[in-house]
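Hey, quick one: can you model this chain's 3D structure?
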Amino acid sequence: MSEESIWLPHVVVAAIVEQDGKFLLVEEETADGMRLNQPAGHWERNETLLQAVVREALEETGHHVEPFALLGSYTTSNPAREITYLRFAYICKVTRVDPGYKLDKGIVRALWLSPDEIAASPIRHRSPLVMRCVNDYMSGRRFPLDFVVHS
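Sure thing. Here's the predicted structure for all 151 residues.
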């Protein structure tokens, strides 16, 4: 198999955080303009997916979170960039907020939006998974954290 034929999806994590009927999102600068997304990012070497989602939530929002369930695993692709993403979405609760935390480059702000507010601007979503994860959460979808096993 040549190197050109190797296909490697990007593995990412996302924090699904709901509090008082609103979801924690980030507004971020992307190659396609300003977009809304759940706090999310790439899984890094030498960390578990749970460690990754905790890290990404902090880096992008200044919120310390604790995952308590797996919402699901999802795939989406960006054909223009020939990238496929495999997203592990974890349901998390906020344990504390660090208001002075310096957010990741490209993150404009963290904000809380209701499902209706999120649904009102689909063109601003970073991917179709933004609304899909909100809808799955609202439907009661949950899996135990040990659904994904690290060895």
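One thing worth noting: Helices lie at 49-61, 115-119, 129-138.
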